[in-house]
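Ticket opened by: R.M.
Priority: normal
Category: complex prediction / small molecule

The reporter submitted a protein together with zinc ion and asked that the result be attached to this ticket for the collaborator who will pick it up next week. Submitted input follows.
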Amino acid sequence: MVEGKSKKRPVLPLSYEVERIVAKKECQKECDYWNTMSDHLSPLNELKFRDVIHVVKTSPIILNRQSISETEVAFSLGLSNNFLYQLNDAVAKYSLSFVSILNSQCNHFQLIDCERLNSRLKNLCYKILLEIKPIRGGQRKNYFLKHKSVTIFKHELLNVKKIQYTLSELDKEKVKLEKRCRDLFEQLAKENEHAVIISEQNLDIFTLQQQNSYLADRISKLEEQLPKYKDDKDFDQLAPKTQSRTLKKLETDAQRALWFSNTFGLTPKCLTMTSTKGKDISLNFQEKKCSDFNCMTLEDQDKIMKLVFLMDRLCVSDAAYHELTMVHNDMPRSYLLVQCRNGVNKSFEIERLPGNVPGAVINISSEIEKLLERHVNKHDDVNQVYVKFSGDGAKVSRISNFVFFSLSNASTANTTSFQEQQTFAIVECSENHESLKKCCLPVFNQINNILSREKWHIAGTDINVKYFVSSDMKFIQLLLGLGSCTGEYACPWCKVSKNERSNLSFHWNFYHEPSIARTVEEIAQEAKQNKKRFGCKHAPFLNLSVDQYIPDELHLMLRVTDILLRNLINDAKDLDSDLKLKRLPQTNLKKLTELIQGCEVAFSFLTNKAGELDWTSLSGSEKVKLLNQLPDQLLLQDGVIRDETRNDVVSLWKDLLFLYKYINESTDCGSIVLEKNKVWVENFLKIGSKFRNGYNLHNVTPYMHCFVYHLPYFVENFGPLKKFSGQGVEKNNDIVKQIHQKKSNKWDSAVSALTTRKRLEFGYMNNMEREKRSYFKKSEWWDGSLKIFRSGKRKEILKEISEANINSRTSLDFGEMNEHDLRAFLKDHGINTKIRNREKLMNLVSSNCLYI
Ligand SMILES: [Zn+2]
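Result attached by the on-call engineer:
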């Protein structure tokens, strides 16, 4: 098909890929044209064109211009009229040049987009348009089949050789680029791997930073405490006195800074320095005899530490010890004790709390670490440890109230002693929501952080830690943001109403079912509403599930005993008022006092400001004594309480003691515990049905409801409740109270009390307490004789007091007393009178045998 002047011109190869050359043309514009065109021209159109283009032999007749030599002509291109007709349309449609469209239809050669070819093609197209206009039908068809030819000059053909060369060059470049691309890709993959590793490491670093944030804080605080030297003057410029002072200070600091050399077993002896003027100055560390605590032998240090511990435990003041050392020369000097104490104090990182009140907190997570370390050391195979947080408020003086927070190990029952309690925060504020919110938020934040951490890694062991809060009901209600015990919905664990509390017909787990049990989320939700339902006043402070708040059995017993004791006293009071009506001596209340005092409990009645009868509040151990001894005494003594219900009341007291011991040790299932506790409350209400006040349905307190319906749940799930006992906490509170009253700085009460308490704990943990000497307890002495001995001693003292009174009475001269004094004297002896006549008053005195 391709012909031409074969002798002079190379034949265009058939399979030559013109498209490829065109695609790689340097001229970007042409490339763009090509691409756009290929996009626009459908394959159908392409076919249509392909049939109508062919190369024809060059004929000189076609060449109009004589001037053009034959050698310059490459070939002639035959184009059908139809093609030209459509070419015109395509040019208008795609706004491309004529040559570009023609090129797109040729596979074997490509033309240069020059002006001559374009105008030639344009003229041909217009010519066809003009010629076709009048022609119709078959003639038109024939006309379209005819051809027009276009002469193509050599210079109008694209230089294939040049392009071929460029192509081969580009191919080489392509191979190079492909290799480079592969290399870069590999490099990128490696970089990505590195990036993943780095991001993982960053994550690790971030978690480590988070975990050790308190250490960073500590370091920054320690840096602040670093000694600051004046840098405005050189050593040489200082006065001799200042120089020696600076050297002394430098010596201490240099020794402290060089302590690390001891870890290599090397002790620094001297330090030589040169001043700016070139003067050699040397400090000898070991020349003088050291009188510091740190220079003492380990044995002596141990003794001093024990002394410090004893002084803390017995609340001995520094002044008292100093006076003792003045009397006895061989006692260690008091400054050594102060140094030792300061050394111990430095190991606690105590921070102040906000709220403009004395408040101190210690890092809780390091406290838990200490606790777990101790547990791991004692027990070999541990993977689950119960950590119990406790909080309580206590009045430490007439005007100040402390709120304590402590934690302890609740995994085993033998870890409830006060030595095992670790106090971590003390705040001097009242025990209410506002104060806690104002002062204790940092404490709650710390606890919340810890609550989210269930796994601890201690000494190579992974330990799962479950957290609990155990305290009296008031504090649990505060932590959960609930209203007080007197509210309609007072129970911290469920939404039982005041009236429903005395209903005993439900099964053991009823109040822990989702329909009625409380959840932390629900309390927070209700607290946000305007109408705060179910006693939810505020959002809970801690992010801990409600069933991990365990009631403290000690407070439970105390509060229930309170009610029983109040009922006893009211009973006696009622009997007394009956006697008063009969004008008989009122002896029942007095007898009750004697009975209670007979149980070795300091107890007396007093009248409060409102003029109501009040009585001494009893401690936990005193109440246990009462529970043990009072019921039997009540049975033996006539009067005191009403005979109709005497047996019921006595058995109620005895049963309470039995149940108190039972829940502390029971491993029974919930339903059995419920039955036992339920019977007790039923007996309580039975007395009420015999028309006794104080034993009625409305006297069933939240504590009693908890006793019946919540204790079974906790016993079933967590076993005997002794391990959650608050006895250690109470004892701990007493110790802190004592420290506050006897030893601490009143103007920095919280920090001082917490530091002392931490020192005591340090002492307990390091076994500084003296081992008790073993001795045999003769049972008859302790149970019988001692009691008689003590009560005899008390009676003796009381007798002496009354004798002193009688002696003073004989010295009274009634003759010199006026009417007012006489009336006051009679009132002191229980005779209230309004008589004003002096003679009658004297008669009253003598008739009552009030003087000898
Ligand atoms: Zn409840």
